[in-house]
Amino acid sequence: MIDERLLTWTEADLGVAGQLRAVVRAPDQVLSSNGDRVDPTAPEIIQLAADLVATMRVSPGCVGLAAPQVGVGVKVFCVDVSQHPKARGHHGTFVLCNAEVIESSRNEKAREGCMSVPDFTGDVKRATRVVVRGEIPGTGEQVTFEANAFEARALQHEIDHCEGLLFLDRAAGAHAIYARKTYL
User: Fold this and answer.
1) pLDDT recorded at residue 1
2) What is the pLDDT of residues 2-47, one digit of tens each?
3) Of 61, 25, 55, 82, nearest in space to 183 by CA
């Protein structure tokens, strides 16, 4: 299931230049709070979307960034796994508002890291295939699409941020959390 609108979207569609934002780190309260739903056509949400993409692009190894990670408690995030070696398929760069997983498949364990938890990685079980529904910032157009493998993992990770969850909350326990060997 491919949504053509998502494949053709670029940050230029937002019509504003993104500004770099500081990334907050755990245990900042915004990271553990359920984000608010947004109006994807609101000017401040359009600017936030552009800022998320700009900040993601300058962050080494970053494949996604959620609004709570820049201190804004709302359900908005960006993803781009296109340059990651683990990506099998992808939809390029995109931003979603009010996204949710509406269908998922079997879980698979894999290692995850996060800019908001820079000193640790962890083994997390996530669905290997998801169907996600969300809204595009600027137009508010609803999209529904299927993502697999690494992109599916990235989407679930960012949706979790919007729900107030970190990958640490999904790890099986302390035995599944590791000191990061390579610092970003």
Assistant:
1) 63
2) 667 888 898 999 999 999 999 999 999 999 999 999 999 999 999 9
3) 61
Structural domains of the chain in order of their starting residue, each with its CATH number: 4-179 (3.90.45.10)
The terminus-to-terminus CA distance of the chain in angstroms comes to: 34
3-class SS at 12?
A: helix
- Residues 77, 99: contact at Cβ < 8 Å? yes
Tell me the pTM: 0.94
Please return the burial class of 88, using the count of CB atoms within 10 Å of its CB with bins 0-12, 13-18 and 19+: exposed
**Residues identified as active-site:** 158
Q: Judge if the upstream peptide bond of residue 40 is cis by omega within 30 degrees of 0.
A: no
SS3 content of the chain, % helix, strand, coil (to 5): 30, 30, 40
Element (H, E) at 124: strand 117-127
Instruction: Look at residue 86 and give its three-state secondary structure.
Output: coil
Instruction: Please give the C-alpha separations between residue 33 and each of 24, 69, 116, in angstroms, as whole numbers.
Output: 13, 11, 14
Distance CA(165)–CA(182), nearest Å, equals 23
